[in-house]
Amino acid sequence: MADAQDLVRAQVLIVDDEKDHAETMAEALHKPGHICTIVNSKKAAEEELRHGNFDVVVTDLVMETPRSGMEVLELVRQVQPDAATIMVTAHGDIPTAKEALRGGAYDFIVKPLDLVVFRNLVQRAAESVLLRHQNEKLRGQVDAAYGFEGIIGESAAIRQVITSIRQVGPTNIPVLISGESGTGKELVAHAIHQYSKRKERRFVPFNAAGQAESLLEDQLFGHVRGAYTGADKDREGVFEYGDRGSVFLDEIGDTPLSMQPKLLRVLEKGEIVRLGSNDARKVDVRFISATNRDLRTMIKQGQFREDLFYRLRGVEINIPPLRERREDIPLLVRHALGRFARELDRVIPTISEPAMLRLVAFQWPGNVRELMNIVHRMMVGSSANILDVQDVPAEIHVTDSDDAAMGVSAGLGGLAGCGLGRLEKEAIRQTLAMAEGNREKAAQMLGIGERTLYRKLKEYGLR
Predict the structure, then answer these.
(1) Is the pTM of this model over 0.70?
(2) What's the CATH number for 9-139?
(3) Start-to-end C-alpha separation, the chain
(4) Which residues in the chain are classed under CATH 3.40.50.300?
(5) What's 324-460's CATH class?
(6) Are 286 and 245 in contact (CB under 8 A)?
(7) Between β-strands 107-110 and 271-273, what pairing exists: parallel, antiparallel or unpaired?
(8) CA 84 and chain centroid, separation
(9) Per residue in 351-400, pLDDT tens?
């Protein structure tokens, strides 16, 4: 059994409309040193959850209504997703308690409580929350070696993106993020939110692509009861849900023309009108949008409003495709190896030089998303501690276009099927140029040791 000093001390919110029962639970938790807050209604629980900070929430399943506890659980998931929720239930409500487990509850316990069992359950929940926090902190420390808010890269292009995030983050100016699919536009949007004064509020991402117009309007602006068949109660949309936080609209270029004046109203007046209503409602959101389409061409073609474009584009941040910042690929690969090793509960493998060079040479039409997927496949397909060329999927092959992109002269011909030695030499040459002759930096970019690079330089006659 753990010593008293080894026990995790947690902030616990107890929600129970039976005051004596709530006091009994709190008394049981005070002994090991937990700090308890008691409330006796769902409304009071909401107030505490929105303004306090808790590790564990213990809630009675049935209070004002048979679903009160489930509503508290949903609220915890929305406003304090890192907290663990324990449901307290009568024997007859076990099916609902099991539903709560499927809905994200940590566990449930049946009345009458065995206080020793209850105390141990809360302790395990607190320990799981602490472990998750520690893992997130460690992950942040690992990412911090190469990244900013999860953005991995040392290229000049990525450094410019990070500089832009630092500049615009603390402001309220709308930001338009442009770039190909898979380059990490949502990651940049989230970094802007995290660097803003709204970081304690919600970050609400929403993809506008592929939505029917009526559904899109309902999702964004909400509706009032009776707005259409089946609308049996009022519902807030994305903008109201994200009030005082940041809303990220991905694929903004796919927004129908008829919807665009309503987005302009949000930007200009901070107002929305729910479906089925004539009353404007005030919202305060940081507007971040993204597109992989050329909005200027769409304006010329009459597919996008020019006034909306200039309101969205308070500041534009362009994320270059991966093929234009190949020096970031080794960093991204190492990041992916660590991430998936944790997911697969295995030792972090290394990657051979030839395998890394093949990854660096590829064009990556799917950008970072495709690279992450390939590294994941390589790790799932091999249990070895060193991933080699045979572990690289067949579709990641070197073509003439890759040859040109790497700066290899046309006279060298294609690299496919023969070119690892040739590819290695040219990759080292180009990386040294990018690193301005700094061998230490070039070795890091290539994912190899400095001594190995020095040997290769001598072998290939490079200086």
Answers:
(1) no
(2) 3.40.50.2300
(3) 63
(4) 167-320
(5) mainly alpha
(6) yes
(7) unpaired
(8) 20
(9) 988 888 889 889 999 999 999 999 999 999 998 889 999 999 988 875 54
Residue 19 near residue 40 (C-beta atoms within 8 A): yes
Per-residue three-class SS string for the chain: CCCHHHCCCCEEEEECCCHHHHHHHHHHHHCCCCEEEEECCHHHHHHHHHHCCCCEEEEECCCCCCCHHHHHHHHHHHHCCCCEEEEEECHHHHHHHHHHHHCCCCEEEECCCCHHHHHHHHHHHHHHHHHHHHHHHHHHHHHHCCEECCEECCCHHHHHHHHHHHHHCCCCCCEEEECCCCCCHHHHHHHHHHCCCCCCCCEEEEECCCCCHHHHHHHHHCECCCCCCCCCCCECCHHHHCCCCEEEEECHHHCCHHHHHHHHHHHHHCEEECECCCCEEECCCEEEEEECCCHHHHHHCCCCCHHHHHHHCCEEEECCCHHHCHHHHHHHHHHHHHHHHHHHCCCCCEECHHHHHHHHHCCCCCHHHHHHHHHHHHHHHCCCCEECHHHCCCCCCCCHHHHHHCCCCHHHCCCCCCCHHHHHHHHHHHHHHHCCCCHHHHHHHHCCCHHHHHHHHHHHCCC
Domain(s) labelled CATH 1.10.8.60 in the chain stretch across 324-460
Angle, helices 115-144 vs 329-344, to 10°: value is 160
User: For residue 172, what are its two tokens?
Assistant: 């309220």
Q: How many CA atoms lie within 13 A of 100 on its CB side?
A: 32
Quick: pLDDT tens for 118-165: 999 999 999 988 888 777 665 545 544 446 777 888 788 888 999 999
**CATH numeric code, 167-320:** 3.40.50.300
Q: Which residue intervals of the chain bear CATH 3.40.50.2300?
A: 9-139
For the four alpha carbons of 368, 336, 329 and 460, in that order, the dihedral sign comes to: negative
Cα–Cα distance between 12 and 21 in angstroms, integer? 15
The vertex-414 CA angle with 410 and 416, nearest 5°, equals 155
φ, ψ dihedrals at 23, nearest 5° = -65, -40
